[in-house]
């Protein structure tokens, strides 16, 4: 069992459910240290003042916010401590909303919430009630002196908390703008694209996907550590520019179906086929 990252309580109305919070993800990135190429010694970063042209110590550094080019407002650690959010031990739920109303762009980092020994019953009650209602709880919490917006949702009998981005932290589609389409897709192109999507459709299985680059990096490190001679593979060819969209769709569909153009998907049963035929008749 991993170590709890935070402990407190879920609070809604007059109900308090003591919980502990655990990380729901693990860092699997490959991390490198900086070494001196000449002798392999560790390289450390130093604090350097460009105006004085010298190295300075940590206690000579203050925080500064740039308000215009080369103009800064400095703040002290005490000033920041005086206005930091109160370190309460509660996740205060303010709203319950439908899960489909939250765009995934607002989600940041997931954590599991597990009940303390004395709170298993109200914890299970909340998880079950939220699942039955199809609702997600929205609230605020303070962790490591930082205020977070959070969403809590039921998952496999547990409660999963996801820290969220505030509205002003999300770039909206309106700010980006809709690209102008030179020529709208034809009916035949849409049909071909729909067939390609249907051929490639299936149930999501996270175990199916692998971090290929990370695995190659770790394999390279393992081989070099074992003294193997490394022979690097040739660089992959860059994909060409799509000139004929229809030809590209047809080739993609043929490839997805196994090269001979025939679907590799399991044929639907009699009931499923009848259901589809009925739906087509209604649509027509």
Account of the 3D structure:
The chain is of the alpha+beta class. Among the domains are: 6-26 and 84-168, Ku70, Chain: A, Domain 2 (Beta Barrel); 51-76, no CATH class; 184-197 and 247-262, no CATH class. 27% of the residues lie in helices and 26% in strands. It contains seven helices and eleven strands. It has helices at 77-83, 120-133, 173-176, 187-199, 212-225, 245-256, 270-283; strands at residues 6-12, 15-23, 48-49, 54-55, 63-68, 71-75, 90-98, 107-115, 135-143, 146-155, 158-164. Strands 1-2-8-11-10-9-7 form a seven-stranded mixed barrel. Helix 4 packs parallel to helix 6 (245-256). The mean pLDDT is 87.
């Amino acid at each position: 069992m991993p170590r709890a990252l935070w402990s407190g309580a879920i609070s809604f109305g007059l109900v308090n459910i003591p919980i502990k919070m655990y990380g729901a993800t693990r860092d699997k990135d490959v991390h490198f240290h900086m070494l001196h190429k000449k002798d392999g010694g560790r390289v450390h970063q130093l604090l350097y003042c460009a105006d004085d042209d010298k190295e300075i110590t940590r206690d000579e550094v203050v925080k500064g916010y740039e308000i215009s080019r080369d103009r800064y407002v400095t703040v002290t650690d005490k000033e920041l401590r005086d206005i930091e959010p109160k370190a309460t031990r509660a996740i205060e739920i303010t709203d319950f909303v439908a899960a489909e109303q939250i765009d995934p762009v607002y989600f940041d980092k997931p954590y599991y919430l597990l009940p303390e020994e004395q709170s298993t019953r109200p914890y299970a009650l909340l998880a079950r009630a939220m699942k039955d209602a199809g609702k997600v709880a929205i609230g605020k919490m303070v962790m490591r002196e930082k205020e977070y917006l959070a969403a809590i949702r039921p998952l496999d009998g547990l409660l999963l908390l996801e820290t969220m981005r505030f509205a002003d932290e999300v770039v909206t589609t309106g700010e980006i703008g809709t690209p102008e389409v030179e020529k709208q897709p034809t009916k035949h192109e849409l049909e071909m694209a729909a067939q390609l999507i249907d051929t490639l459709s299936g149930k999501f299985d996270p175990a199916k996907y692998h971090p290929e680059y990370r695995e190659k990096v770790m394999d390279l490190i393992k081989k070099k550590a074992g003294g193997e001679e490394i022979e690097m593979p040739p660089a992959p060819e860059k994909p060409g520019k799509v000139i004929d969209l229809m030809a590209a769709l047809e080739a993609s569909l043929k490839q997805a179906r196994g090269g001979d153009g025939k679907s590799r998907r399991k044929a639907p049963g009699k009931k499923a086929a009848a259901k589809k035929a009925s739906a087509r008749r209604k649509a027509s």
